[in-house]
Amino acid sequence: MNPDFRAIKKECEFTLLNRKIQQYLQAQMESNEDLTKLPGISRGNLALHNGTDKPQIWVAYKGIVYDVTVSRLWKNGKHYEHWAGQDLTAELEDAPHAAWVFDKFDPVAKLLE
Question: Any bridge partners for residue 50, and if so which?
């Protein structure tokens, strides 16, 4: 392969990667701005969305309440040893996955202290 072509190819790959990173960061910023517009919810109200009292199944993580109703893993408000309607921030440390799992779900509220 021509050395000039390799340099051009590498520069194009770098430019494409840089563009994707910028798009990702922009989406994250917009997502964070949207989170500030979420309504507040008390722990008591969150507890009502446990899969038994109401049809919605909600959990909180780091102050954000997520709707996990569509997840087959949260059927009936239980996910392994975790129960819906609670703040799961402390429990995530023992989970086999990281916080990215919440990226799949819609944030519905901010948890009030």
Answer: 57
Q: Parallel, antiparallel, or unpaired: how do β-strands 78-79 and 40-41 relate?
A: unpaired
86-112 burial by CB neighbour count: b if 16+ within 10 A, else e?
bbbeeeeeeeeeeeebbeebebbbbbe
Report the predicted TM-score, pTM, of the whole model to 2 decimal places: 0.67
What is the Cα–Cα distance from 67 to 80, expressed in whole angstroms?
17
Instruction: Confirm if 111 and 65 have CB atoms less than 8 A apart.
Output: yes
Are residues 33 and 43 both part of a single domain?
Answer: no
Q: Is the pLDDT of residue 31 over 60?
A: no
Tokens of 48: 């009502």
Same domain, 68 and 110: yes
